[in-house]
Every structure is written in structure tokens, then in C-alpha cells.
Design goal:
The structure is a single chain. With 802 residues, the chain is α/β, with parallel strands linked by helices. It is 49% helix and 15% strand.
Length: 802
């Protein structure tokens, strides 16, 4: 990409914004070195990486953890210098962060494949984490376990220190010595332990003088009796220092040997962090990924095959609260745009927005524009915007622009985007307009996608009469005398000079005299443009009012739906409480029946009456204690029908399975749903519409894939589905088991992933027999009781498999 264009379009400022979201210096520097790519596949990969990172960060707070900037440390290691403990800890922290990232994305590979591929490039820690942990403590101290010699030296050092301090403590506690001391304490001078002796008693204690106080009243002396201990202590200190240096040097040598791998690890972590930074920046901008299209020139046509379709695009460097979104769309026959309008009306901002968003998209950054925006991937982008005056090169503003445009004309081609601001300005208007037309014609002849702004009315006519070119304008509010910054494609800008002068109080006779100087065709054209702009404004206002009314209706519909949900929740709560109360009473009655049965049994009385009562109790339970299910909320009056009605070929979502499928058959209460090689019957209440119905050709695909992926099935496809539920309530044990066995075989042949067996609670005999059969059945992988609201202990859910 042209470096001058990057600067003109303020691309470095975007990179500075991106770098501000980086977690550490290497990724910030990498962000500032980011450049747009002209390779379509690479640009799409970058955008997909950013999209994956946004999805991941929305679901977690993943970051690069404790990664540090290791570049100065690695440079020091390459010179074979000894690394300090805190530098080794920075290496360890970065290694741990990189290892955690690699492990995280290894676990999330299926959900975030591109990020996982990038994280897979992180090299293994090479044993350095353990080596540093064995050597350096978290406080940056070399551990005793760093080497056997260091451990031995430190043990000897502690022993000598204890003996030395013990000898000195006895000395300062001696009643014969205490009167000579300034204070009964032990201190250190010159690396040796000493005691404070009053200068007046010099010579009373045999000692070596090492220092004296500022007043001269105190001498710091080393008693001769501890000289040997001090010598040993000092020698061991030096030995400890040398061994620490040897240990750090050896560890530093390992870092030197692995410096290339560590450098590569740092680069991969930095690339991951730049991706996370791009995701955070996109969230701040409320950006979206644009669709990227290849430039495909067609033979015999001047159009280069480029695409520019930006919806509600915003300049990323302007205040998002005040910036006015613009729509820029070139239809399939247009590849040049001529924008006219008043100064400070937003023409230059519109050009910069298109250019900058193109560069961002080709860099893998999401753009502040609405979804559905599309851009071509250009091989090069050129821009001439702003004041090119150069005092040093003796160039005027006009000369500076012409110099830059001449450079662009030499390099631009069919796969280029050229942006020219105020084309033909800065010189004689007539010559400037002629030159502007010639430059635009030259670019059109070379099939270059071109965006220009101008004040020359001749270019409006040229754009109107030339195939491939379209006029556009920025609007101006004559009431407030302020630009609206809205871009209107298809209409040239109006000349508002006379209207503005009149609004500002210019005498009417002057306004009329000036209008008389205008050609009648120009006056009629301006009047026609005024009428078109007025009608467009009225249409825009009507559309805004309609959208506001629609939003209000949607809000009321949502509020009504929420109220109905709350009412349904209250209904279910009341019914569930009543059900539980009835269940408690029935359980009490069952306990009484069991007690009565035991009493009659002990009295050897007939039990027929009790059994009749118990059977009636089970019937009452199954009739009146079903789980309370949520009823679908009725659609509000006047609401549109739900998207994707359940009919043959409709796409549906099964929340219980978390899977999507296609309806292949319909019943009164159930539907048959095809999900790849799996076909199953599901209750209509368990299905949700998931989108538009498939075409007949698409509808045939799942059946073909099912036959191809299930060779063990009959040639006609999978076995018929028996449904996902089997109701055994009211059956005797032997009947229930026989029906269960047939059902499980049919469900297995139909490739159902799971089934629900409804057996009720009752006496528990059927339930126990069913669960024992499920435990031993060869097609059942596992089973569990029904969940809350699913029947609880009166239902068993079995998972089927090999």
C-alpha cells in the first residue's frame, strides 16, 4: 500500500487506537506495524480471526495473562550476559501465560479454529518453567535448592552466623563488659559484626577498631574472640555470591540456547493479543465485519468489477455521538463517484471514510458500518487530500496536488482505488474544470475505481452524461445555514450561494440582479434540484416516522409478551404448588394403605379391598398429577405470524438436543425431523422455527446423506421412528417390559439419541422393573430420572448407543 496515502487517510491514527487496546508492548508495536493486505484470502482470514476473538471475549475474560516484554532480556541473553532473577521471573511468567493460552485453545479448537491454529504455533516451554521455579523464588531470591553446593554453603553460613551471634550476645551480656559499652547491641561495619564501645574505655576490651561515631564518643570494635567467626562468615558469604552467580549464569545459558524459540513464542503471543485488541476496538466502535469481494474485470466492459457498498458508515476517528452515518453504494454499472456540495459540508469526510474503511477491512479490522456492507479488496489505494503546498520545494497548493496526482496516474490500475479531493481546484476555474474532466476521463478509460469531490459545475454535467459515473452531494440546511453531512447519491449538489446571501440579509435588488445574470436553464435546473431534494427530505422524514412507530409497536409487543410470560409463570407456580400438595396427600394415603396392609396381613385378613383402593389411587395420581407444562404464549393481536411456520421443509431447532433439522413429515401432535443421518419424531411443542424453509432440492439432501452415512440401515433409509416417548402407565410389569424391549429396539434402529419412558410413580413396581431393564439393555448407554418439569421420578430418560 502507498505509504503517503496511509498517512493522508490517517491510517496511523487507527493503528494508535488499536495499540491502546494491546496488553503489552510487543503487541502494541506489532499493532502499529499492521498494514493492509491485497490478498483476498488473507484479508478474509484476518476478519474471521477478529470475529472469533469478539465471540470469545463476549463469553469469557480471556487475556494473555502475565506475558512480559522479553525483547530486552532476550537481547541481553544473546550477548551471553548473566540474567538477573527478576528477568528470569519475567521469562517464566511469559512462558506460563503462553502455555495457558496454548492449552485453552487446544480445548476450544472446535469453537475457535483460527485462533487455535495461531495458538498452536506457540512452542513448548522446553523445561524452562520448572528450571526457573527450582532456582528462583517468587520474590526473586535464588533458592537453596538451586544447587547442592549452594544449599551446603547456606547451611554452613547459618551455622557460623548462629555461633557468631551467640558469642557476641554472651559478650555484651557479661557484667564485666557491659559498663564499657555504649549500648548492649550487635551491629555491622564493613561487612563484619561489631559492638559499640565507649571511646573512654578503649583498650579495656581486646578488639579491632573498624569505625567510630560522628561525635567520636563511640568506637565500633570487633572483639578478638570473634575474629575467626567473622572471617568464616565473610568467606561463606563470598562463596554464596560466587555460587549464585554460577547458578544464574548456567540458567542464563539455557535461555541463550533457547532464545529463538522464546522470540517466536513472544511473536505468537503478540499476534494473539493484537487479535484480542482488534476485537476490543471493534466493540468500542460498534463495528461489524464487512463482506470482502474479489475484483473481477469482465471482458468488453469498462467496469473493473469492484464493489463498494457501505451502509451507515461512520468515520472511526470522529465522535461517535455526533458523527452522521452515510450510505455509499456504487451500483453494478458505476465505478466513479463525483461528490459536490458546500465547503465544510462533509465531502472530504465522506472520501476519507470510504478510503479508511477500505484500509481497515483489508487489515482485518471490523469497520464502523452496518451489517451487509461490502468492499472489494484493492491491490492499491491512492489518495490526494488536503493542502500539498511545499515551501521547501517551491510548490504552490495547485502544483503540490498536480505532482501527487501525476504520481497516482502512473501507478493506478484496474485493481486500484483512487480518491481525489477538490479536483481541479487552486487555479483558473475554466482551466481547472477542463483539467479535472480530463483526469477523470483518463482514470475511467483505465477502469480505475474513482471517488472525487469538486466545486466545478461542469463535472456535474460530465458525471450525468458519462456511463460508469454517478453524481452525489452533501446536503445543506438553508434554514440553519449549516450542513447536514448527509450524502445523497444520484443527485448533484445545489449551488446555494444566492439563497445563503439572501438569508444573511443581502439587499433583494442585488439578489435579483445576480439571478438575472444566470442562464435560464441553470435557474430551472436549480429549481428542479430544490424540488427533488425537498421530496427526498419529506420521504426520509416519513420513513423515520414509520420506523419510530414500528419500534414503538415492537416495544409494546415485547412488553405484552413479557406480561404474558409472567402470567404463565404465576399459573404454573399455582398449579405446581397444588400438584405438590396433592402429591403429598397421596403419599400420606399410600403410607396409611401400606400400614393397613401390614396390619391386615398380620391379622390374616383378605387384601382385595386394599388392592382395589391402591389401584384407584394410582389412577387418580396418573390422571390428576401430570407435570405442569408451559403453554405457548398467544401472539398479540395484529402481530405478524412467526417466521418459518412448521410445515414440510421448514428448518427447526430442537432446544432439548441443541440441534437444527428439517421437517420431513407432519402429524397432529408430532413431526418427523431429519438432522443429517439422524431422523426422529419430536413433539410439535418441542420445536422452534429456525429460518426459511428449504427448497425441494435441499430437502432431498438429508435423505441422501442419511443413506450414505448409515450403511447398516436398509436401502430405503433409516427405520421408522417410534417417537421419543413411551407411555407405560397402567401396564402390568410383564406387559411393560415386553413393550419396552420392542420400543428400545425400534428406537435404536431409527438412530434416536435418547428416549423418555413414562412409567409413573405408583407402587414403584413398574418403575423398578423398567429401570432394571434399562440398566441391563445392550442398546442403553445410560439412564437418569426425569428432570424438574419433565415428570421427575415418574419418568426415566435413556441415552441410546452402541
Amino acid at each position: 500500500m502507498d505509504s503517503k496515502t496511509l498517512r493522508i487517510l490517517e491510517y496511523p491514527k487507527i493503528l494508535d487506537k488499536l495499540a491502546s487496546y494491546a496488553a503489552f508492548a510487543p503487541s502494541a508495536d506489532l499493532a502499529r506495524r499492521l498494514r493492509p493486505t491485497s490478498d483476498l484470502r488473507e484479508a478474509r482470514r484476518r476478519l474471521a480471526l477478529t470475529e472469533e476473538a469478539r465471540t470469545l471475549l463476549a463469553a469469557s475474560d480471556l487475556s494473555i495473562g502475565g506475558a512480559r516484554d522479553l525483547r530486552p532480556i532476550l537481547e541481553k541473553a544473546r550477548r551471553s550476559a548473566m540474567l538477573e532473577p527478576h528477568e528470569l521471573l519475567d521469562i517464566k511468567s511469559t512462558l506460563v501465560a503462553a502455555r495457558n493460552l496454548a492449552r485453552t485453545f487446544e480445548r476450544l479448537e472446535s469453537a475457535y479454529p483460527l485462533l487455535a491454529d495461531l495458538a498452536a504455533q506457540i512452542p513448548p516451554p522446553l523445561g524452562l518453567i520448572d528450571a526457573i521455579s527450582r532456582t528462583i523464588s517468587e520474590r526473586g531470591e535464588v533458592l537453596d535448592s538451586a544447587s547442592p553446593a549452594l544449599g551446603r554453603i547456606r547451611r554452613d553460613l547459618q551455622t557460623v552466623h548462629d555461633r557468631l551471634m551467640s558469642r557476641l550476645q554472651r559478650l555484651i551480656s557479661d557484667p564485666k563488659v557491659t559498663p564499657y559499652l555504649q549500648d548492649a547491641l550487635v551491629t555491622m561495619r564493613g561487612g563484619r559484626y561489631v559492638i559499640p564501645l565507649q571511646a573512654d574505655f578503649k583498650g579495656r576490651i581486646k578488639a579491632i577498631v573498624h569505625d567510630q561515631s560522628a561525635s567520636g564518643a563511640t568506637l565500633f570494635v570487633e572483639p578478638l574472640s570473634v575474629v575467626e567467626f567473622n572471617n568464616q562468615y565473610r568467606e561463606l558469604q563470598l562463596a554464596e555470591r560466587d555460587e549464585v552467580r554460577r547458578v544464574l549464569t548456567a540458567l542464563s545459558q539455557r535461555i541463550t540456547e533457547n532464545a529463538p524459540e522464546l522470540q517466536h513464542m513472544l511473536e505468537v503471543v503478540a499476534r494473539l493479543d493484537v487479535t484480542f485488541a482488534a476485537a476490543r476496538y471493534a466493540e468500542t466502535l460498534k463495528a461489524s465485519p464487512p463482506g470482502l469481494r474479489a475484483i473481477r474485470p469482465r471482458k468488453g466492459r469498462a467496469h473493473p468489477g469492484s464493489v463498494i457498498r457501505l451502509r451507515e458508515a461512520r468515520h472511526p476517528l470522529l465522535d461517535p455521538e455526533s458523527v452522521v452515518p452515510i450510505d455509499v453504494e456504487l451500483d453494478p454499472r458505476t465505478y466513479a463517484l463525483v461528490i459536490t456540495g458546500p465547503n465544510t459540508g462533509g465531502k472530504t469526510v465522506a472520501l476519507k471514510t470510504v478510503g479508511l474503511l477500505t484500509l481497515m477491512a483489508q487489515s482485518g479490522l471490523h469497520i464502523p458500518a452496518g451489517r451487509g456492507s461490502e468492499l472489494s479488496v484493492f491491490r492499491s489505494v491512492f489518495a490526494d487530500i488536503g493542502d500539498e503546498q511545499s515551501i521547501e520545494q517551491s510548490l504552490s497548493t495547485f502544483s503540490g496536488h498536480i505532482t501527487n496526482i501525476n504520481r497516482i496516474l502512473k501507478r493506478a490500475g484496474k485493481r486500484s482505488l483512487v480518491i481525489l479531493d477538490e479536483l481541479g481546484a487552486g487555479t483558473d476555474p475554466q482551466e481547472g474544470a477542463a483539467l479535472a474532466r480530463a483526469i477523470l476521463a483518463y482514470l475511467l478509460g483505465r477502469s480505475v475505481t474513482t471517488l472525487v469531490t469538486t466545486h466545478h459545475p461542469e463535472l456535474k454535467t460530465y458525471a450525468h452524461n458519462t456511463p460508469g459515473v454517478v453524481n452525489a452531494s452533501v446536503e445543506f440546511d438553508l434554514e440553519t445555514l449549516r450542513p447536514t453531512y448527509r450524502l445523497t447519491i444520484g443527485l448533484p449538489g445545489r449551488s446555494n450561494a444566492l439563497a445563503i446571501a439572501q438569508r444573511l440579509g443581502m439587499p433583494q435588488e442585488i439578489i435579483e440582479a445576480a439571478r438575472a445574470e444566470l442562464h435560464p436553464d441553470e435557474v430551472r435546473a436549480e429549481g428542479l434540484l430544490d424540488e427533488i431534494h425537498r421530496q427526498r427530505q419529506e420521504a426520509r422524514q416519513a420513513r423515520a416516522e414509520a420506523e419510530a412507530a414500528l419500534q414503538e409497536a415492537e416495544a409494546l409487543r415485547a412488553e405484552l409478551a413479557a406480561r404474558l410470560e409472567r402470567i404463565e409463570d404465576e399459573r404454573r407456580a399455582v398449579l405446581e404448588a397444588a400438584r405438590k400438595e396433592a402429591e403429598t396427600q397421596l403419599e400420606t394415603l399410600r403410607a396409611e394403605i401400606r400400614a393397613l396392609r401390614r396390619q391386615l396381613g398380620r391379622a390374616r385378613q383378605p387384601l382385595e379391598v386394599i388392592e382395589q383402593v391402591q389401584e384407584r389411587l394410582e389412577e387418580v395420581e396418573e390422571e390428576h398429577l401430570p407435570p405442569v407444562e408451559r403453554r405457548p404464549a398467544p401472539a398479540p393481536a395484529g402481530a405478524p405470524p412467526p417466521a418459518g411456520p412448521l410445515r414440510l421443509g421448514a428448518r427447526v431447532f430442537i432446544p432439548r438436543l441443541g440441534a437444527k433439522g428439517v421437517v420431513t413429515a407432519m402429524g397432529e401432535d408430532e413431526a418427523e425431523v431429519q438432522m443429517g443421518a439422524l431422523r426422529m419424531r419430536v413433539r410439535l411443542s418441542d420445536l422452534q422455527a429456525a429460518g426459511e424453509p428449504v427448497s425441494p432440492e435441499e430437502e432431498a439432501l438429508p435423505e441422501a446423506s442419511a443413506a450414505a452415512s448409515a450403511p447398516s440401515a436398509p436401502e430405503s433409509g433409516l427405520a421408522p421412528s417410534p417417537g421419543v416417548e413411551l407411555d407405560l402407565r397402567g401396564r402390568r410389569v410383564d406387559e411393560a417390559l415386553e413393550e419396552l424391549d420392542r420400543y428400545l429396539d425400534a428406537a435404536y434402529l431409527a438412530n434416536l439419541p435418547w428416549v423418555r419412558i413414562i412409567h409413573g410413580r405408583g407402587t414403584g413396581r413398574v418403575r423398578a422393573a423398567v429401570r432394571d431393564a434399562l440398566q441391563r439393555h445392550p442398546h442403553v448407554v445410560s439412564w437418569e430420572p426425569g428432570g424438574e418439569g419433565e415428570g421427575g421420578d415418574g419418568v426415566s430418560v435413556a441415552k441410546l448407543g452402541e
